[in-house]
Write a structure and sequence with these properties.
This protein is mainly alpha-helical. The radius of gyration is 20 Å and the shape is elongated.
Length: 237
């Protein structure tokens, strides 16, 4: 397929914009958006650049997203970087996996539908999320036991131990060594990524259109959905 110079330049503009902003909407950049959506040659050029940069380029609704692949630590996050961002300074693997479990629990509470959209609620209180985390950890540890955890590779008891090791502070401490601070830090991280709206004054949590699109079109195909449910219910094999 022969490419015209104008197509190549537009493709480069689109990819550079995605590198800078991670998403390109029709509202923000109509010319670039239409160039991608209406021209297969430009679309192929942008996707090809994404492959070289270890990213997926996907269009959900009227927004184009740049999604780093799982092992892309340059445009995404490595395990070490996430541990540093989400956990206390001397955080262990237990703390890291606990932080990932917190995020999974949040997603499961908002996206549990089987209809046109998987989203089942519009908001959630921070205190409710905190209670859900405690309950799911206890349920998982009780249901699986040590033998089940070893077989499945999901250490609910270790994560529960790490969670209970965090202090509880009714004054709303923001220290990562408290349950409230640990959760606050994770929610702030998700907000900085444009995935949630975290209204601290009201302790209110909402999801963004970006996360809604990603969950409906990417993560929650039926295979992924069932795997997340099994993990949270302590049944993953």
């Amino acid at each position: 397929m022969a490419y015209e110079l104008e197509d190549i330049r537009t493709g480069q503009e689109i990819f550079y914009y995605l590198l800078e902003h991670h998403e390109l909407s029709e509202e923000a950049q109509e010319r670039l958006y239409r160039g991608y959506a209406e021209n297969e040659r430009i679309q192929n050029l942008v996707k090809s650049q994404g492959e070289v940069a270890e990213c997926d380029i996907e269009r959900y609704g009227n927004v184009i997203y740049l999604i780093p692949k799982e092992d892309n630590a340059f445009l995404g996050f490595s395990k070490a970087q996430l541990k540093q961002a989400l956990c206390k300074s001397n955080g262990t693997d237990k703390d890291y996996y606990l932080s990932q479990f917190v995020i999974l629990t949040f997603l499961a509470e908002f996206y549990d539908g089987q209809g046109v959209t998987s989203k089942t609620r519009n908001y959630m209180r921070v205190g409710e999320l905190q209670n859900c985390i405690s309950e799911r950890l206890k349920e998982g540890a009780q249901r699986m036991g040590e033998e089940g955890e070893a077989k499945a590779g999901i250490a609910f008891s270790n994560m529960a131990e790490a969670y209970e090791a965090l202090k509880s502070d009714e004054r709303g401490s923001r220290a990562k060594t408290t349950k409230e601070g640990f959760l606050h830090n994770i929610l702030n991280f998700l907000q900085k990524q444009g995935l949630i709206e975290y209204v601290e004054e009201d302790e209110m949590l909402k999801t963004t259109k970006k996360l809604d699109n990603f969950m409906d079109w990417n993560l929650l195909n039926q295979n992924h959905f069932q795997r997340v449910r099994r993990v949270l219910e302590g049944q993953d094999e």
